[in-house]
Specification:
Blueprint (H helix, E strand, L loop, with lengths): L1 H4 L15 H17 L4 H16 L4 H25 L4 E7 L2 E6 H27 L2 H10 L4 H30 L6 H32 L16 H24 L2
Antiparallel strand pairs: 1-2
């Protein structure tokens, strides 16, 4: 779970981490818009392949990549199954489960793969952005784009205390395992329920302590954000080139292939 949220790899020095976060945010947003508005499966899959290849080239551990993509792959599998068996009219094959026949349809399979490709493409863009940009730089860039200061303060505090809560949950779960809290199904369910309740209580207590500490340090309702310099010529050129390539790829895959 620590690997799922950690941004330790964003502090490596490479060509992508040196790009201005504002340029990376605009490029990521343009890629997401292209994926979500695509009407064919090719563009989302190409974006997924490019992002995954870039992550591999950056030498990100395969375990981290698997952890980050596990949930999107699960969502994709569910979408494919639901669409395959409940959408369309052309039968593909029939299976029987618990005495109930389920018929797969060609149109449903095609639609499920299309939606799953959009999920994978979108998640891969966000994943690559999180690998090459520290969280505080993303928040700083969002503030430069005039995103609400209140929303950004909440996001910063949430991100900061995710790790605190994770450490607390890990300690509680370890204590439960030492007391054989997960040896049977019923006991495991009770232990998990107690763990969830304790986590909620701890989060409320932590919120009170954090608010008191911030007030003692002079917090009066606004959190300062450091200014960002003007966008450099290299970053402006890279931004223009990337947007041009995204637009060209969109036009080619959506209108140029028949």
């Amino acid at each position: 779970m620590f690997d799922l949220f950690s941004d330790i790899f964003t502090y490596r020095d490479n060509a992508l981490t040196r790009i201005d976060p504002r340029a990376k945010l605009v490029i990521a947003l343009a890629a997401l818009i292209a994926i979500l508005t695509a009407e064919r499966v090719v563009l989302p899959l190409c974006v997924f392949g490019i992002c995954l290849g870039t992550v591999i080239a950056l030498r990100i551990p395969p375990k981290l990549v698997a952890v980050r993509l596990a949930a999107p792959l699960s969502i994709m599998a569910v979408l494919v199954v639901i669409q395959t068996f409940f959408t369309g009219t052309t039968p593909l094959f029939t299976i029987t489960f618990a005495g109930w026949p389920f018929t797969a349809k060609v149109e449903g399979l095609r639609q499920g793969v299309f939606l799953g490709a959009k999920v994978l493409g979108s998640v891969s863009v966000v994943f690559l952005l999180s690998i090459v940009t520290p969280a505080h730089r993303i928040f700083q860039a969002l503030r430069w784009f005039r995103i609400s200061r209140n929303w950004l303060e909440i996001a910063i505090l949430m991100y900061r205390y995710i790790f605190v809560l994770m450490d607390r949950v890990a300690d509680l779960a370890a204590a439960q395992r030492l007391r054989l809290g997960y040896t049977a199904r019923g006991r495991a369910m009770r232990s998990f329920t107690a763990l969830a309740g304790a986590t909620i209580i701890h989060s409320l207590e932590q919120a009170k302590r954090t608010h008191d500490a911030m007030r003692l340090r002079g917090y009066r309702g606004t959190m300062p954000f450091g200014p960002l310099p003007a966008l450099g010529r290299r970053d402006r050129g890279l931004l223009a080139l990337s947007l041009t390539l995204i637009a060209a790829a969109y036009g080619f895959f959506e209108w140029g292939i028949r």
